[in-house]
Amino acid sequence: MSEQNDRWGIPGTYVFDLQLSRRGYAINRMCNSLKLEENRAAFVADEEAYMSRYGLDDEQKQAVRERDWLRLTQLGGNLFFFLKLAATVGHGLYQIGAQMRGESYETFMKTRQVPGAV
Amino acid sequence: MSEQNDRWGIPGTYVFDLQLSRRGYAINRMCNSLKLEENRAAFVADEEAYMSRYGLDDEQKQAVRERDWLRLTQLGGNLFFFLKLAATVGHGLYQIGAQMRGESYETFMKTRQVPGAV
Amino acid sequence: MATVVAGIGSSHVPSIGRAYDQKKQNDPAWKPLFDGYEPVKRWLAEEVKADVVILVYNDHGTEFFLDRYPTFALGVADSYRVADEGYGRRPLPDFPGHADLSVHLANQLLADEFDLTLCQEMELDHGFLTAMPLLWSHDDDDWPVKVVPLLVNVIQHPLPSGKRCYKLGQALRRAIESFPEDLRVAVVGTGGLSHQLNGERFGFINEEWDRQWLRDIQDKPEALAELSHQEVMTAAGAEGGEVIMWLVMRGALTPQVREVHQFYYAPMTTGISVLALENT
Amino acid sequence: MATVVAGIGSSHVPSIGRAYDQKKQNDPAWKPLFDGYEPVKRWLAEEVKADVVILVYNDHGTEFFLDRYPTFALGVADSYRVADEGYGRRPLPDFPGHADLSVHLANQLLADEFDLTLCQEMELDHGFLTAMPLLWSHDDDDWPVKVVPLLVNVIQHPLPSGKRCYKLGQALRRAIESFPEDLRVAVVGTGGLSHQLNGERFGFINEEWDRQWLRDIQDKPEALAELSHQEVMTAAGAEGGEVIMWLVMRGALTPQVREVHQFYYAPMTTGISVLALENT
Ligand SMILES: [Fe+3]
Ligand SMILES: [Fe+3]
């Protein structure tokens, strides 16, 4: 839990404020477009072209390539939007969460009270 | 100046309030779609089909057919939206105004201080 | 005159919707949850008999995008569709609106200096959907109540303050009580309790804080309304900050309330609760 | 610290934009209008030297539709495009935003209980565009000032009250003055004066009321802020009701102001005015 959004000072937390939202606007706009099946298909067909079309910068593109959800968060991605990207590439919420925590999915699930309630 | 929106009591005036806006939602939604050239072409090609697609009711359709801007206003059309319809069918603002007043364009223009400022 | 006949706080979690649709009511992991809502559902059906529900919720990247993000948005439509959040539309009937009440609320709340965004079209995501079938029985194509959706921005800071939300609830009550028709109105505040879906602290839950919230929202709502977002998010997780929506519900009730039912369960990543209150 | 260095009221009328683009500055019908703005343009360039303009305007069915209509919407972007209102984009450069100031204003105004819609994308129609080239010289691709657009719903009732608009102006001033950077900020309120584009009363103008407004906005803004929409629309025409946007500008100034310049002209269907004020 070393990293955080310094304006807020809550460990392990990147508060989605206007500054971060502005930073990540291209990401979130791209992710939002993936609501439509035809756009998901276009993304899958050519990820690089799709990212360029939405104006992601190099850091953001790299985070998408690596499916690095923590980095994407730090760069202004908002989970409620990038869940659409995650679904497109086959990642689920708890997989994302485990990765953000730096744990395996199995280790993360062991920290839950009733892991059957998914 | 006999007619008005009774909730407001201002003669010759149809205040665009939520009730009127809800009444005219289909009209305004259709008119708003005419921002796009392809939609204007579709409207011109088949007015009836276009109106049906946007769910106008019979009174509203009739007002559109007759280019009756006053009636359209009474049925919830908002000028800022139906100006797009007017432009599509070749009517201008002052023509609309003259018609609403029940005057010819020429008579209306005579009531203006500097009719050259159009 | 319309009156507020129930105030309900209820979490909204997508997995609850999936469990409901997949009929997991008797699945060991889910039974406690469905059983926990049951007494409230019965109370609403047998005693409260609301005509309309004003449901306070937030959208989760479904209908509202960051190009134009409202602070408060009120539905003023005759009906509201169930949104597709990317996994297909849930098999729930669309919701009948109570447009006359919506229009009245819009007029009153604007006059009371709340700067609402007014929505003639609005599809509803799990922020709205989760609580509804747990609280009201529906058949294949209708609901026993009409609805008025009231959206709060809890996604992109600056959010409205807790105090502003509480004041909105108080104004809502004045607006409801000035509606001329006899209507029984339930107000539901959704969201929370503690959870975090963000950063290295993903999965954070604070059960102690949640249980305190469930007491204080009854007896000390004004103290809760004074908390800063930073205080709430530190204690309840970044996404737990959405509990401010409960303050809208609480503001719509009388200063003293009676608890009808309370339930709490934290199986996975969210402190899930339902709290039913009535005016005294 | 940022300071408010000018307050300007200015009508917005599409035909002015057309006359400007068609270079009708010396056309007998238009010359009075352009001459009327000239002293204000000179004052702004030579004395005021603003860094940023907060321009209060309304959209006219261009960017905002009735599916989701905000009461107040604030631009928080780095730049804003010139909208196409259906006759092609006007040959004006796009506008550079001052995003840092926008973000600061958003945070302060939300904390001050104004429930804004925040816009990361916003194209600007004649509500915004009309005044800009009459007040600031531009070249082919840039403006000498940055902008922050502030949109007010004056189209679909319930509108915010005049009082709410005046209070928004007062809060805007507090927010501007708490911005740490030294910035010279001009606030422009647009719209009006009397006109009506609706019903049998289309073309209604009330020059006497307009001239009174130009006096009272200086000396009795609080009295103007108390007027109901019905009173204003009865006297100034249905679309004249948009003068409440001038109250936002006036609220951002000191209680006493000094008039720098005033101009009024009512050639066709709108009482067109520019009024330049400064703090005392
Ligand atoms: Fe939520
Ligand atoms: Fe206007």
TrEMBL record, chains A, B:
Pfam family, one: LigA
Domain Extradiol ring-cleavage dioxygenase LigAB LigA subunit residues, every copy: 27-113
Protein name per the record: Protocatechuate 4,5-dioxygenase subunit alpha
Origin species: Marinobacterium nitratireducens
Lineage: Bacteria, Pseudomonadati, Pseudomonadota, Gammaproteobacteria, Oceanospirillales
UniProtKB/TrEMBL annotation, chains C, D:
InterPro entries: Xdiol_dOase_suB (IPR004183)
SUPFAM superfamilies the record matches: LigB-like
Protein name: Protocatechuate 4,5-dioxygenase subunit beta
Domain of life: Bacteria
Upper lineage: Bacteria, Pseudomonadati, Pseudomonadota, Gammaproteobacteria, Oceanospirillales
Domain Extradiol ring-cleavage dioxygenase class III enzyme subunit B per the UniProt entry, residue ranges: 8-269
Listed GO MF terms: ferrous iron binding; oxidoreductase activity, acting on single donors with incorporation of molecular oxygen, incorporation of two atoms of oxygen
Taxonomic source organism: Marinobacterium nitratireducens
